[in-house]
Design a protein that fits this description.
Layout lengths: L1 H12 L9 H5 L2 H8 L20 E3 L2 E3 L18 E3 L7 E2 L12 E3 L7 E2 L12 E3 L18 E3 L21 E3 L22 E3 L18 E3 L7 E2 L12 E3 L7 E2 L12 E3 L20 E3 L27 E3 L24 E2 L6
Parallel strand pairs: 2-3, 3-5, 4-6, 5-7, 7-8, 8-9, 9-10, 10-11, 11-13, 12-14, 13-15, 15-16, 16-17, 17-18
Antiparallel strand pairs: 1-2
Length: 358
């Protein structure tokens, strides 16, 4: 069941544009939350109703919804047994030290789309059960200090963070999903050791002004999103640390070449997105990736496709069948592509060639 929750978080974390989070939908996964937290106390009191509720908010069992209320501060008198607090789409500018005092049972805190530029270093004190912290679409310029230790998902999409300091996520050993997209980071803004101690599975750094693949991300990552950056080349050393990668997205960059041997460093990869770049040929090494099933190469400048670009040369060599290869919107003449080129694709619909239009 933990996998189900993680998949839903990944879907949400990979969204390019702001989407309102439906907190009640998340509450339907409450049994997953309790299993993850390891807390059994008060699990039979979910049907208890609040006697108090912040002005202008709507309260249901353990959920406080205060979105779209024009709030400029965190409301007072939030019930102490709250699990979820929804403060999306308000005008909150600051989180003070005692704003969440006494809310030590909180599981999810949603502060998306406010004007938050300052968070007190002790604002999250004693919030050891907090798992979901959504701070996207605010005005933060740095990663808040002293984040709750048991967080499993952090979202900072579209803030003003231009630097990630060493040990910025210190102590977050349970973090699975980290979304940092649409911040003016650039490669120089990531200090060596910024991700020390993390065992994160997903890292999102799209729209971050990166000119190269970051070299110091957590070695545990299985999914990396680097879409909409300014990366112009993939080099051999780019993925040496990321041997567990299963999904890689480099769409909408300026990549002109993928150095020979680069893809061999990620032998467990299942899905690669290299569409909307400036590649002139199919990257070398795809045929050696045993588990690769999806490769997107559309909207590049590829002029020819070799018969062994995708499939192993030796007959009988084990290789998972492709479910998707996209080559449309390239100046390649599809009638010149040998039929045997796609001999390891599972079905005719698995290949998209199409026509090239200037």
């Amino acid at each position: 069941m933990r996998v189900v929750l993680l998949l839903s978080l990944l879907t949400l974390a990979s969204s390019k544009y702001y989407q309102h989070v439906n907190v009640m939908d998340m509450m339907r996964n409450y049994d997953v939350m309790m299993a993850d937290s390891g807390d059994d106390d008060d699990s039979n009191n979910l049907n208890d109703h609040y006697d108090i509720c912040p002005v202008g908010c709507h309260c249901s069992p353990r959920v406080v919804q205060c979105s779209d209320q024009g709030l400029i501060n965190i409301p007072a008198k939030i019930p102490a047994d709250s699990l979820m607090i929804d403060l999306q789409n308000n005008d909150i500018t600051e989180i003070k030290e005692d704003d969440f005092k006494g809310l030590d049972k909180l599981y999810g805190l949603f502060l998306i789309n406010n004007r938050i530029s300052k968070i007190h270093p002790r604002a999250f004190k004693n919030m050891n059960r907090l798992r979901l912290l959504y701070l996207s679409y605010n005005m933060l310029t740095e990663i808040p200090a002293n984040l709750p230790p048991n967080i499993i998902e952090l979202r900072f999409h579209e803030n003003r963070i231009n630097k990630i300091q060493r040990d910025a996520f210190k102590g977050l050993r349970k973090l699975h999903v980290l979304e940092l997209g649409a911040n003016p980071l650039a490669n120089g803004g990531i200090e060596l050791g910024a991700f020390n101690g993390l065992s994160t599975l997903y890292v999102g750094m799209s729209e971050s002004r990166l000119t190269a693949v970051p070299k110091d991300l957590p070695t545990s990552i299985t999914e990396l999103n680097l879409e909409y950056n300014k990366i112009f080349k993939v080099e051999v050393e780019d993925f040496i640390r990321y041997k567990n990668l299963q999904r890689l997205s480099l769409s909408f960059n300026q990549i002109r070449s993928v150095e020979n041997g680069s893809l061999a460093k990620i032998p467990n990869i299942r899905e690669i997105h290299l569409d909307n770049n400036n590649l002139k040929k199919v990257p070398v090494g795809l045929s050696s990736l045993r588990y690769l099933q999806v490769i997107f190469l559309h909207a590049n400048k590829i002029t020819s496709v070799g018969v062994n670009d995708f499939c192993p040369i030796r007959f009988g060599e084990k290789k998972n069948l492709y479910s998707g290869i996209s080559l449309f919107a390239n100046p390649v003449k599809y009638w010149d592509v040998h039929p045997a080129t796609f001999r390891c694709v599972g079905g005719r619909r698995g290949v998209q060639l199409g026509n090239f239009r200037k």
